[in-house]
Amino acid sequence: MANRSRFLWELGVVRWGFARATLIALLITGSAMAQGKEYTVKGMVVRVDAAKGSFVVSHDKIVGLMDSMIMPFDVKDAKELTGVAPGAVVEFTLTVGSTSAYASHIIVRKYQTVEKDPKTAQRLAVMKKMAGLSTPRLEVGSKVPDFTLMDQARHRVAFSSLAGKVVALNFIYTRCALPQFCLRVSNNFGVLQKRFQKELGRDLVLLTVTFDPERDTPDVLAEYASQWKADAKTWHFLTGAVPDVRKVCAMFGVEFFPDEGLLNHSLRTVVIDRSGTIAASIEGNQYTPEQLGDLIFTALN
Asked: Per the confidence metrics, is the pTM higher than 0.85?
């Protein structure tokens, strides 16, 4: 069911209205026993239409109801969508009636960053002041200023040269010791590279920026990129002068500081649409590669 739904979606057969009708038909004909019940739904938001009181979610399996897929959900009160934006990881209650279903009690699951620890927050504030990283983070809907860094093939890559393409951007450093952090977000892009083979280069570009430019030289990044057989023409692993890298990290709200020879850091993945506007800014790693792919598919289309 999930694979078929995702396949149809990517062919463009499933549209917003049809998908909603499909949901209702599924609830009525395929889940008659579910009528009048409530289900907990978790997933990533890929589109919000507050005017119509609906949002689209790439959700996990809803136990007892349906497999994971992309699906639109209605809300009874548009206020439920306050604070809900593409890229947000959410949890909500799906109430299934006899002829319709609606979402309520929507909670945006915030990623627990290093700033939750007061001592770490204080140290981070000092480091940011010393490094001149007081630039406000770009929010969803903001235009991304131009910047230029160097990739693993020693080619200079200007953000402005990617105009007209969707850009997925994340941040890592190659010495990261914990697999659930930098390795995971890099692997997420590895999955995107396989899923969007036809779109890469033409409609989609992947950018991975190191926040450890003193050690992550182009040669080091090339070796790191080889784990995912990354094509340097479509997936750029970027480094540069320390001030330039810090400026880019600050623009997107990426925080890092040295700690016993390694780096403590936040996690940020950004999707930028064809006009150079931030479509989604995802903090943390509480999402699946498939959900990130669904978000990017929405931006592409």
From this structure: no
